[in-house]
Amino acid sequence: MAELRQNTWSLNAWYEQDYAGNVSYNGIGELFCLGGDNDYGALGTNSEGDASRFSSPVQIPGTNWDKHASGSGDTNYQRAAIKSDGTLWFWGRAQYGTFGTNSNVSHSSPVQCPGTWNSVALQNLQSMGTKTDGTLWTWGAASNGVLGLNGPDNVHQSSPCQIGTGTDWSSSTIDTKDKITAGYRNNSAIKTDGTLWTWGRNDDGQIGDNSVIQRSSPVQVPGTTWNSNAMMIYACLATKTDGTMWAWGGNGHGQLGHNNRTQYSSPIQVGTDTTWGSLYISAARYTVRVVKTDGTLWAWGNNSGGGLGQNNQTQYSSPVQIPGTNWKQVSVSDDGQTTAVKTDGTLWGWGFNGKGGLGHNNRTYYSSPVQIPGTDWHLTRSARQAGYALKLK
Q1: Rounded distance, CA 376 to CA 391, Å?
Q2: Phi then psi for 58, rounded to 5 degrees?
């Protein structure tokens, strides 16, 4: 394993594959990949394979990029981005129709998925998104009822299919909390009335309906004041409008933040704090990152690669504070790679860097935040992945 070291408030970032953007306030955005593996053309640079692997920023074709998402699990070579005009684009590995283009052809540069979109989420061979009209759509592999279409598991979809007929699904933006998130064969989404809905695999009670029964269409989690949500593998976290945070599902790594390893099949409040109200939450696999209303940054769960920012690799089953103040946004990937932005526009990263995804032309691991050059950075909304950023002029 590469060297694990501390770099207190200098700069560096992690990512399995990372993207950064340069965008002006008029919506003209340039998207950059900071590095990583390029199998299946996942870096979006119109090339693929080891010979085209990067460890420093390279621009993705096109302009006007606005929001981005990255697959994990079986889709960790799949990427998606939404432009300011609402067009949705995919690149990388295409399986089971996850690009929504009615084909399984992989692409090393962006290809458009039909429709006008507000949000997109990817995970485990399936995609989900909301359109500008408030409708909710899924496509890709249909295992464990994850598409929410109330159909058999072996009927995969290679183009977007609408879930129900509702037009009241909320959308995520780069400045707001996540409203739709994808987990490991699970999805969750919040409606405009504050209700939270989940569906798919439910072995560990991650659906939150006090059962372990698989659901092939959305079921409501108790409550009507949900504010944001994040899916992990076999677990879910969410906040309410009163600033409380809740977690349920699998807990083998302490990822629920309850100071134990107990599994729960319905929402349990994390501590007693009510300062998660402006929460910018990111959860991936078995690890969590959250920004509180006071600008402090907290983490818990799995800590391989030093992603919890504690200058160690110790797992924590309750929130621990990451050094620094004035944090604004945070994002984490399945490998524990973490990126975060402060209110002064500086971008910081730490954790796994074995694939050179930090963009610093090395593969050094960092267990505390280090700064990425530049200012005026802004993270895009990506529920499960770090490494996407906009640079605002």
Answers
A1: 5
A2: -135, 135
pTM of the entire predicted model:
0.87
- Helix and strand numbers (H, E) in the chain are 0, 30
Q: What is the pLDDT of residues 288-323, one digit of tens each?
A: 999 999 999 999 999 988 989 999 999 999 999 999
Q: Which domain holds residue 25?
A: 4-392
What Rg, from alpha-carbon coordinates, does the chain have?
19
Confidence of residue 239 (pLDDT cuts 50, 70, 90): very high
Structure tokens given for 323: 């050094």
- pLDDT band of residue 281 (cuts 50, 70, 90) is confident
Q: Contact at 8 Å (CB) between 374 and 364?
A: no
- Say if residues 97 and 138 touch (Cβ distance below 8 Å): no
- Token pair 């780069």 is found at 174
**Cβ-contact 50, 42 below 8 angstroms:** no
Q: How far is CA 194 from the centre of its chain?
A: 21
Query: CA nearest 332: which of 363, 302, 292?
Result: 302
Residue 128 three-state SS = strand
User: Which backbone phi and psi does 97 adopt, to 5 degrees?
Assistant: 75, 25
Q: Which residues contact 309 (CB under 8 A, 6 or more apart)?
A: 297, 299, 322, 323, 338, 350, 351, 367, 368, 369
CB atoms < 10 A from the CB of 346, how many?
20
When mean pLDDT is compared over 46-55, 98-107, 178-187, the highest value belongs to 98-107
Let me know: does 286 contact 309? Beta carbons within 8 Å.
no
For residue 320, give the CATH number of its domain. Answer: 2.130.10.30
pLDDT band at 348 (very low <50, low <70, confident <90, very high): confident
